[in-house]
Design goal:
The chain is mainly β and about 475 residues long. It contains three helices and 44 strands. It folds into two domains: about 350 residues, Regulator of chromosome condensation 1/beta-lactamase-inhibitor protein II (Methylamine Dehydrogenase, Chain H, 7 Propeller); about 110 residues, no CATH class. A hairpin with a 4-residue loop joins strand 5 and strand 6. About 45% of the residues are buried. InterPro entries: Cu_amine_oxidase-like_N, RCC1/BLIP-II, Reg_chr_condens, Ub_ligase/GEF_domain.
Length: about 475
């Protein structure tokens, strides 16, 4: 049995098309009625908001950051229930956030989603779904470092929020209006400093933290923001570095320690910038190409073009090691280089642009069996363009019975000494799969054994239709 596993926080397989774990992006996105409008990622996971207002999540899920109400890693994006009319998503570390068209802010993941005890199906892996931050309203955009967040309101003011615990260890969320902030358009948190981009394209900084008391400042302690730079259209943050996109298409780097502005050589005609992890800057050029700068790899590192990306219309960063993008065709893409991450798998040296792997992000799957919608907690998979599901998924609704037996070898010298055989039965038909044989088509994903659904349906004479453009799977027994 083949295993797809986690090694620490490195998700070995997700969004991989070479091999391939995911359906061909060309085929999957051809007729998609919805397009990605916003995307983000934390450590080894991703979330995306779509033009129909829905949100999907995938990847590493220990803290419920995917948003499906479990701690189960999801190898195929899942639609997040309870979220509607979402226009922006943000992620940092292991926490996720969404802004709706109505100006609401929703949060889930580390610090925001608590365990749900006593669930009969998932007694140890059930976790809360996204919840609304009641202290925020009329919000147009947010920024977060995973610990605290700042919301920009429709009137140009801003509010800081963060989690704290009282003397009885009860969790609360504190909301602090940022005094003196007006005309704000976007905001990012850089360490303990807020960087505020104004509607007048002026960048200002505001100290958020009281080092003496070891806490965030109260409203009375906040000072007026200081002007850092003018003529700025976008900002991107990575740890102690801020990157500023000028209106003329050039990029500046500002370091919080040196307090100096330097021009990033080799980047001109830029329309968007994003950071990934602690050492990568991604820049989208006006011609639709994407450029990467590994700025912490020594003084000689220079921006280079990311191969395999063209006709790109928007890019998004993550706090992992993967970039996200959408192209003119509406295809949702992920790419990485040199490292395994929760969003894509690369190989080779991170310094070599030829090792970049560009993958297509699979649509979230929906399941209808005999005319009824079916949902299940465990992850599904797409391997070699085929659907894989755990036995606790659609088989019960299909009327398929599953049996499992271990058959010992009669030959004492045989290797292995026993074989594990799964049998799927529907009426008079049966399909048996020996998981100990090479190419048995049985995989182990995220603590679940998953089986080749299409192969089983074909053998049992059950009709299965999978619309790869929309993710809809319809099964008729």
């Amino acid at each position: 049995m083949k295993r797809w596993t986690l090694c620490g926080k490195w998700l070995i397989i997700a969004l991989l098309t070479v091999g391939s774990l995911w359906a061909s992006g060309q085929e999957a996105m051809a007729d998609s009625p919805a397009k990605v409008v916003s995307a983000a990622g934390g450590y080894d996971y991703g979330i995306a908001a779509w033009s129909d207002g829905s949100v999907t999540g995938w990847g590493y899920n220990k803290y419920g950051q995917v948003g499906d109400g479990t701690r189960i890693d999801q190898y195929v994006p899942k639609k997040i229930s309870g979220l509607e009319n979402v226009i922006q998503v943000t992620a940092a570390r292991d926490a996720s956030f969404a802004v709706t068209a109505e100006g609401e802010v929703w949060a889930w993941g580390a610090g925001y989603s608590d365990s749900v005890n006593g669930d009969p199906v998932l007694p140890y892996q059930k976790i809360e779904l996204p919840s609304k931050l009641e202290g925020l309203s009329d919000v147009t955009s947010i920024g977060s470092n995973g610990i605290a967040g700042i919301a920009v309101h429709k009137n140009g003011t801003a509010t800081l929020w963060y989690i704290f615990y009282d003397s009885d260890y009860k969790k609360h969320i504190k909301y602090v209006p940022l005094k003196g902030v007006t005309g704000a358009r976007a905001v990012q948190i850089m360490g303990n400093t807020a960087l505020i981009l104004g509607q007048d394209d002026t960048l200002r900084s505001l100290s958020l933290y009281n080092d003496y008391y070891g806490r965030y400042r109260s409203e009375e302690e906040l000072k007026a923001p200081e002007i850092l730079k003018a003529d700025i259209s976008r900002i991107a943050i990575s740890w102690r570095d801020a990157f500023l996109l000028r209106k003329d298409g050039t990029v500046l780097r500002w370091n919080a320690d040196s307090q100096k502005f330097t021009v990033v050589d080799g980047l001109k005609g830029i329309s968007n910038i994003q950071t990934v992890g602690y050492n990568r800057l991604y820049a989208l050029k006006q011609d639709g190409t994407v450029w990467q700068w590994n700025y912490n790899y020594g003084g000689n590192a220079k921006p280079f073009q990311v191969k395999g990306l063209s006709g790109i219309t928007a890019i998004w960063g993550t706090t992992g090691l993967t970039g996200l993008a959408i192209n003119k065709k509406g295809e949702f893409l992920a790419w990485s280089d040199g490292y395994r991450t929760g969003l894509a798998e690369g190989s080779g040296s991170a310094h070599n642009d030829s090792d970049t792997m560009v993958t297509h992000v699979q649509q979230a799957l929906s399941w209808t069996v005999n005319g009824k919608s079916v949902n299940f907690y465990a992850t599904s998979g797409v391997v070699g363009n085929k659907l894989y599901v755990p036995y606790t998924s659609v088989f019960g609704a299909m009327g398929v019975k599953i049996s499992h037996e271990v058959v010992k070898a009669t030959d004492p010298k045989a290797v292995p000494q026993s074989q594990s055989i799964w049998t799927f039965t529907y009426g008079e038909r049966s399909v048996s799969i020996n998981q100990d044989k090479p190419n048995s088509e049985i995989f182990y994903m995220s603590n679940s054994t998953v089986f080749p659904l299409e192969t089983i349906c074909e053998g049992l004479g059950i009709n299965l239709k999978w619309n790869k453009a929309t993710g809809e799977v319809v099964i008729q027994s």
